[in-house]
TrEMBL record:
The lineage of its organism: Eukaryota, Viridiplantae, Streptophyta, Embryophyta, Tracheophyta. Residues 331-430 form the Nicotinate/nicotinamide phosphoribosyltransferase domain. The keyword Glycosyltransferase applies. Pathway: Cofactor biosynthesis; NAD(+) biosynthesis; nicotinate D-ribonucleotide from nicotinate: step 1/1. Its EC number is 6.3.4.21. Pfam families: NAPRTase, NAPRTase_C, NAPRTase_N. Transiently phosphorylated on a His residue during the reaction cycle. Phosphorylation strongly increases the affinity for substrates and increases the rate of nicotinate D-ribonucleotide production. Dephosphorylation regenerates the low-affinity form of the enzyme, leading to product release. Keywords: Glycosyltransferase, Ligase, Magnesium, Manganese, Metal-binding, Phosphoprotein, Pyridine nucleotide biosynthesis, Transferase. It comes from the Eukaryota. This is Nicotinate phosphoribosyltransferase. InterPro entries: Aldolase_TIM, N/Namide_PRibTrfase, NAPRTase_C, NAPRTase_N, Nic_PRibTrfase-Fam, Nic_PRibTrfase_pncB, Nicotinate_pribotase-like_C. Belongs to the NAPRTase family.
Amino acid sequence: MEVKENVPNGELSTRVHVLDGPTNPMVTPLLTDLYQFTMAYAYWKAGKHHERAVFDLYFRKNPFGGEYTIFAGLEECIRFIANFKLTAEEISFIRESLPSSCEDGFYDYLRGIDCSDVEVYSVSEGSVVFPKVPLLRIEGPIAVVQLLETPFVNLVNYPSLVATNAARHRFVAGKSKMLLEFGLRRAQGPDGGIGASKYCYIGGFDATSNVAAGRLFGIPLRGTHSHAFVSSFMSPDEIIDKSLHSRDGSSICEDFVSLVQTWLSKIQWSNSLRGVFGETNQSELAAFMSYALAFPNTFLALVDTYDVIRSGIPNFCAVALALSDLGYKAVGIRLDSGDLAYLSCEARKFFLTIEKEFGMSGFGKMSITASNDLNEETLDALNKQGHEVDAFGIGTNLVTCYAQAALGCVFKLVEINNQPRIKLSEDVSKVSIPCKKRCYRLHGKEGYPLVDIITGEKEPSPKVGERILCRHPFNESKRAYVVPQRVEELLKCYWPGNSGKPREDLPPLKEIRERCIKQLEQMRPDHMRRLNPTPYKVSVSGKLYDFIHFLWLNEAPVGELQ
Ligand SMILES: Nc1ncnc2c1ncn2[C@@H]1O[C@H](COP(=O)(O)OP(=O)(O)OP(=O)(O)O)[C@@H](O)[C@H]1O
Ligand SMILES: O=P(O)(O)OC[C@H]1O[C@H](OP(=O)(O)OP(=O)(O)O)[C@H](O)[C@@H]1O
Ligand SMILES: O=C(O)c1cccnc1
Ligand SMILES: [Mg+2]
């Protein structure tokens, strides 16, 4: 790829810029299944290895019982092929792993291969996508493209699954809530953790607790503190340096601990809160005071270590009010157990009472974060019950994709040497759509996407205002005419190889996330609902329909009845 960049003397220079390799250094040409190398050898032995092949990468069913999927993982695929080259050590290992009868010429061939003769067309990362529509179309010498099958499927599968999971959590939580990804400790290993943070951000999360992901991808970092911090304190006597400067630096409070204690008794004996709580836990109070002394500008306390209503919330409020005396604004609390709907409502009431009782304008709006085994269902239940949570911290269920373990992407040969190929199956949903194809999204009058249509590569593209027949690929009776108001070509050239075609830029993560959020907003609501969503239509042109069925009949042997 060529990029212009500013050089120190102010002139523009052009230099060849090499795309960085995959984020995970384990992603090498050996990160594939053995059978890709055995097939590559057999292609080579048959003298077929240079034959030009076209493969489609797609999935057959949307995950999580939904009717949409978010496509993610493209950038890593492109970085992988941009740097695809087998080292001498890797080739020696393949030689050791294949039978000794394999001829030396094959290893000479492997030494020379890269992806300069491969072309990759892809849907843009962060797009809303549907079953059967190719997400990527990969064309090149068959032996090389065959080697890409496993890594490409691997690089797309989990990212798309977890981005979809994140988008679904966002859908239930609503636009206005802050969503924090807290899954690193429970993710499937380091790559699962890093991937989850990146792709949950694409799917609509706001921030992650994963520091490495923050550094690698510039994702906003957020966090609170754990129960360990609270239980590590025994009493306020442990606090040695009790002084705190006021926010504007104009004064100093020499004994912040006493200031907090004074506020605690004011709350306890106030008209509206008298009798609501007695003695609060003093070790918890010590922890909160210490945290506030360390972070006076961003004080947030985990309030459920001992008792949320009788200890955590009053203790938090006393510290927040003392901070307020010094010009600081506390951020809020986190709840990590119990009935999150009930406790959040009780906390809100408490904050509003403080606001009223002490004339503390804005105190009622204190932020409430909730965590603890959250998932789509619990978010939905909280919504139905009514809650006062502003931010959700979600880990295990989100990043492990507990509700569905894999997306099930496949990589199928659709053409070789300009000859269309088909994979038949007893199960119609598993029959592949042959030919090198183009894909379009047709938008209707109301602006919603209506249908995706797949056509042969050489067919004229659908035109705005022109009626086009859209057919179900396998079901003869399902067809519809569409007059598109907007036609969007889905597969774009992200890796032209040496074809000389222009190449789409790989956008920054934030742009991918914005695309995802925008596309989700544009979907017709009935495709998005959680219960019995309407399937989005995926179709083929009349010409492609006829061809699929011609090839099907041609390739399927006629049975004999005995
Ligand atoms: N109001 C609510 N409606 C539905 N589910 C809720 C509600 N509040 C919390 N939950 C969920 O109920 C489950 C409570 O789990 P569990 O009983 O194991 O935790 P806990 O006892 O509250 O806390 P912990 O054991 O972590 O100290 C969690 O999955 C949580 O997300
Ligand atoms: O529940 P998740 O959705 O995975 O979110 C992350 C969890 O990780 C943290 O504690 P951890 O679970 O390690 O300890 P805990 O079970 O005592 O809360 C945090 O307090 C959350 O509970
Ligand atoms: O910052 C937090 O509150 C956090 C981070 C990771 C896991 N649980 C909580
Ligand atoms: Mg937990």
